[in-house]
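Z., the sequence and structure:
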Amino acid sequence: MAGGATRPVDLEAIERIVIVGDARAATPGWESSWPALLSAQLPQVAPRARVLRLDRAGASFASLAEAPGLLCACASEACVAAPSPCLEATDTSPALVIVQLGTVDMLQVFLHLAQQPSLAMDPDTLLADFRAQVRAVLAMVDDPAHFGRRPALRVLGVVDPSDGSGDLDALVQRVFNLPLATHVAPADALGVLSAMNRVLAEEAGACGGAFVELGPAFLGHGLFFDDPTNPHHSATDATAWLSGLYGVSARGAFELLRAVRMGIGAGDAGMRPMLPEPAAMLPMVPANGWAKAVVEAHITSMIMTDFGQAPNTATDPAQALGPPMAGRVEAVALGVLGADLVLDLGAGTAAANDVGDDLVVREQGPMSQGIGEPYRVLGANAPAGPWRVIGDGYGEQSFDLGSAASIRYVRIMSLATLGDILRGPGSPFYPGGEIDAVGAVYPR
């Protein structure tokens, strides 16, 4: 990896801004995420630039290091048939790469600490693995298979969801409503997170990039934003910038935009607009709003584990039709990246764009005593598309349709990789997002 001094960003010359991000780059909705907000400000920020979004919920340094092909790259004529979006390696125009990953990696490290608390006292092995993964991903800036000309680089830090408390037990209780005793001292958890951010800063600098710190700004606005006993609690601005463990609220997306702009030398994001407060619960779906038919489905039937083949035991896509069943979850497990499901909300009961969120996806998450897994929601008014991205999610979630007036057909794509399933707390026998129901809040 090439080293050297930090490359300044000449925003007047930049023609491509490539965003490699996780769910915090794809939430609260595709059109209200920080990359979308940045795109809207490009005439003032980088007048010649266009944004190429390679963000997806579930992305991590670990998954991209393990499977570099997840970052689509093409060359010349091959780009015509390539999936969109895709990096054109022969493009030599000045580019800026913004990497906003690490949320999933942090949670994986915390999971390791919970399983083996002694690692907190000597986390060198965990941190060495993380450094190797970060280094492998950042190496793309010097890889001619991705860039015809070396881009400028900015790497965003990882936010502490515990608001500086380091209390992993309380974190699990708050998110999953599950009692858990990890036996990890808060100071040890915070020390490991701080070390992860040091790794990001060092590896960004080692390849001529720069690190953008997020932690201090987000303190007091994580999952314990409403706890007045937290030393970082803000009585004058007690707002949630995070949404669950993985996503951000509308305010969080704006604050990420602010940090990105400062980090690339574009100045402050300006006055904060009026933003909706995160919903405390899912909006109600009327009886006639639930999906009525399966248009098509590509469900992973089996995955390979270290112990052999593991069959998917929930492959019936019809389980995603109708309302969720009270007291039990009967769902279809999508499988790994590439699996998807297309549902019809019905003639006269399409999802209309109205006040607040307009579409509900019941993927087995905390409300169902499950662990949410990543998926992407797309919408269309014809069964074969064209499709527009509505947003990425984990678990039970609602979505705003953005600029779409309505959608009749909903496509849900798995964003879970095989590595995610094998490393995570979910079951290989129910791989990927488990879709129980999909419904329109305003069926018309």
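The domain at 287-440 is CATH 2.60.120.260 (Jelly Rolls). The chain has two domains: 16-263, 287-440.

Let me know what you think.
H.
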